[in-house]
Amino acid sequence: MSLVQTENLTKVYGTGDTAVTALDQVNLKVNPGEFVAVMGPSGCGKSTLLHLIGGLDRPTSGRVLIENVSLSDLNDDKLTELRRRKIGFVFQFFNLIPVLNATENAALPLMLDGVSPAEAKKRAREWLTRVGLENRLTNRPDQLSGGQQQRVAIARALAAEPALVLADEPTGNLDTRAGDEIAGLLRQVSDEWGRAVVMVTHDPRIAAYADRIVFLKDGKLVDDTQLKQDHSDNTEMVAGRMHALTE
User: Fold this and answer.
1) Which value, in Å, is the radius of gyration of the alpha carbons in the chain?
2) What are the C-alpha distances in Å from 47 to residues 35, 44, 50, 102?
3) Which has the closest alpha carbon to 87: 72, 63, 109?
């Protein structure tokens, strides 16, 4: 059974002559533990797709199923509960709280879900250690590099043990080296820790770490490509596909 399934997923903003179709009849399946990159030209619907899968927005038509549960059938409280327990989010700009240290930032979603502070911090420390920050547990965001801040964000996303991680341009605010490290960490999230990852990126080098790449253009899914295991062999092919789409 697919972990994620979209059925004729469509999102239209505005009405009448000003209506803009951001996503148009997209059908996509993501299996447990699979790493899928989403690429396409600016404005093609990449982030809209991610937001709909994550329940951050509602579709105009079609539906999203997570573990065979239709998000459209959930009220706001149930949708919030599903997001907290089944989905982890990673964004381009980290979204860490400046006055909280790494452990407190990573523990916060657990505490919001009713986990005791002691247990939440214990689980946060475990995940921060797994992502290589065992020596930065008490550092605030302004005491961490960009790459380290994104690792905190990934630990925060994983602390609730979600089945799915959604990453929106997770390397877009990082230099090349840090970007590769974060892409490799997301590969580890999939390979070693068994989470499905759906990642939006504009960078062929980062997309090459994935198992599959789906390409969007004008809101439509126009290509779905399985990648080789060695990501170093994939970059040129991904760049070529992307160039053909944007011509």
Assistant:
1) 18
2) 17, 9, 5, 27
3) 109
Q: Which fold has domain 4-246?
A: Rossmann fold (3.40.50)
CA distance 125 to 140: 14
pLDDT tens for residues 131-163? 999 999 999 999 999 999 999 999 999 999 999
Each domain of the chain, given as residue ranges in start order, spans: 4-246
Q: Per-residue pLDDT tens for 199-245?
A: 999 899 999 999 999 999 999 999 888 886 666 667 666 666 666 66
User: Tokens 């239209």 identify what position?
Assistant: 12
**Taking Cα atoms as reference points, which of 42, 54, 76, 41 lies closest to residue 9?**
54
Residues paired with 70 in a beta bridge: 65
Task: Give the amino acid at 71.
Answer: L
Rounded Cα distance, 197 and 33, in Å: 7
